[in-house]
Every structure is written in C-alpha cells, then in structure tokens.
Amino acid sequence: MKSRRWLSRLAAAWAAVFFLGAGFRALASCAGFGLPFTDLGTTAFCAQIAEAYYSGLSNGTSTTAYSPTASVPREQMAAFVTRTLDQSLSRGSRRAALAQWWNSTPHFDQSLGLTTVGTNPQLMASDGADVWVANFAGTVSRVRASDGSVPQTWTGAENATGVLVAMGRVFVTGEVSPGKLFMIDPSQPAGGAVTAVSTTVGGSPQGIAFDGNNIWTANFDGSVSIIVPGTWAVTTVPTGFMTPTGILFDGTNIWVTDRGDETLKKLNANGSIAQSVAVGLNPNYPVFDGHNIWVPNVTGNSVSVVRASDGTVLKTFTTAGGNPAGLNEPSVAAFDGQRILVTNANGGLSLFKATDLTVIAAVPVPGVSVPYGACSDGSGFWAGFESSGKIGRF
Fold first, then answer.
1. How does pLDDT run across 353-385, given as a tens digit for each residue?
2. Domains of the chain by residue range
3. What count of other Cβ atoms lies within 10 Å of the Cβ of residue 260?
4. Cβ burial, residue 15 (10 Å; 0-12/13-18/19+)
5. Which CATH superfamily is domain 114-393 in?
6. pTM for the full predicted model
7. pLDDT tens-digit series, residues 6-20
C-alpha cells in the first residue's frame, strides 16, 4: 500500500525533471490553481497536483476531496500508470503534432485515399515521407505519403516481396531461388532499374530486416541469410528452419516466423536459434511495438502477442466470441506508435490498442480485395490490396 501523498511527490519529481528543473520550492496555497479540492492545505506541489488533475491522471476521491494521505492500492496505481502512458503516447505522437486526433470512428478512406501501384503489391515500408511498395510483377512504387501520388517507379526487381528502408537506401527481396537482394538510391531524380547487390541469398527470400550492422532475410525455402552491406557477403543459415517468412529486429534480437513448425524464433547474432515460441497456424509477417511482438497467424485466424523480453505469449486474439477484430486470414501487422493494424487477406482490417492489448475495431474495406501489405508512415497506416493493384490510406 502506498499513500496518495507519495503519488503527489512522484508527480512533483517528474515535473521537476521535465518542466521546472531542480531547486527549492516554497509552500503555497492550491486555491490559485482553480482546483476543486478543499483538503490540500498548503503544499509545494500545487502545480503538479493540478497537472495530474487537469490531464485526467488523478481525479481525487470525490468532487471536493483529493485525500492526499489516503492509501492507494496496487490496482489504482495501475490505473495511474496506464493513464500516464496513454497520455504520453497520444500527446507526444506525430499524429498529435499534425492535429490528427480522430480515433473514435476508424475507417478506411476508400473513396479518397486509393493509389494505383504495380501488379500484385506485396510488402511495404515507409521512410517517413514516402511509402515504398514491392510489386511482385517486378516493380517498386514510391508513393508520396502526403498526397498519395506516385513520383517514381523502379523496374527490374524480379518477384519483389519484402521492403527495408535503412542506411539512406531502400532494399527489396527478390523471391527467386537462389534469392536476390535489390537496392534503390532514393536520391536519384527519376525511377530506373534497381541494383542487384546480391544474387546468392537463400532461396525465396520474403521478409527483410536490419539490425544496425547487417541485413537479414527470411527465406521461405528453409533458411535465413545474413548480408554485410558494402561487401554484400552472404551467410545463409539453414539449421533449425523449415519455412521462414517474416523477420524483424527488436533493438536487441532478430525474430523470425517459421510457418513450417508454427513458431516465432529468436536468433543469435550468428543466425542460430536462441528460443522458439509456439504461436498459431502459419505465422506470417509480425511487427514489434517497442515491448511486444504481434504475430498474425494466417490459417489459425488468430494474432499472438509475444513479450520480446522473455518470449511469453501474453495474449492470443482468435475468431471466438463474435470475432470483434474481424480476423479472417490475418497476414501482415503494422504499428503506428499507438495502434496495431493487421490486414486480413480474406476480409478487412483489424485494429488493436498496443498498450492494453484490446480490440479497437474491425474495419471493412469495400471496393478492393485481398488486403495484404501494411506499414505506418509515422502518422497513419497504409494497406496494400494484392488483387486490386492499389494501396490505401487508413
């Protein structure tokens, strides 16, 4: 048990770090802050109590009582902490800076936000200004996120599938055997042919990731490849893998989804397997939210949430209980800083809240078919529609 006075002091400490700086504070009356509480007396923490109240962090114990010495159970402390987290995410996000506050009625801008790209768009990634789309027919589309226009199209990317933005370049996997890795220099004034930097990647590379030093690919033929930028030397590791598909870096480790044995695998720096976590049927392209890994399981019609620190499966969303998320062959996950978007290859889009692992909505996408690739541009989401040759703004 902890006291509400402790909470006031904690709020004061946070404010001292972020707003006031260190130094002596004199006692003051809280009446000048317009607070409704009549039991605060004289304290040095009026400003911090006011900030906690006006931001919705702490509402007091009644309309007129703050009860600064009352006990605070752990369940109430959980509410204080999660409110703080939610506020920091919503007020500190790029969406907030752009005054994009709409969240209550999620929808897909089908009539306004569709952009025609190439044939069979697969995965996509954003550099913060543009969305780069791999089209399986052999092109890469550069879509300007601000207005959805296509200023450039790059050719020669055979069976283009995965996309990575890193080191000022765009990398694309070519799903052939042996696999290929293509590179694009975005500074070139016009689209042209991609550069094949490696033609010896493991067979049928799909997902692609970067760990700050090396590029990794998940190869559907049964391996992962580690590629050294610059020399483009390739090390392919087959041991322990069946059909790797998606791959990501969580800041510490590389993780790979393996559809063959229905696991999410954590890898060591040399590509060996450090941990295998059982997830759902046919795990596909996951995303990391800074704490957890969200894994869409295609034929399992489920989404597994795995804690990256220890591999614990925290929650599994399924089609049971009325299927409020609208899961229907979930395929690709994306994260915008607050929310998780999952595309459903046989349906619409599923939206989740990352902080408390809850469903926000199932979003229909009329007029297009086979939702597949997805990414965030730092403000909102983009989803690709494989059979329609289009991507759309969410």
1. 998 899 999 999 888 899 999 999 988 899 999
2. 2-92, 114-393
3. 13
4. middle
5. YVTN repeat-like/Quinoprotein amine dehydrogenase (2.130.10.10)
6. 0.82
7. 455 444 444 444 444
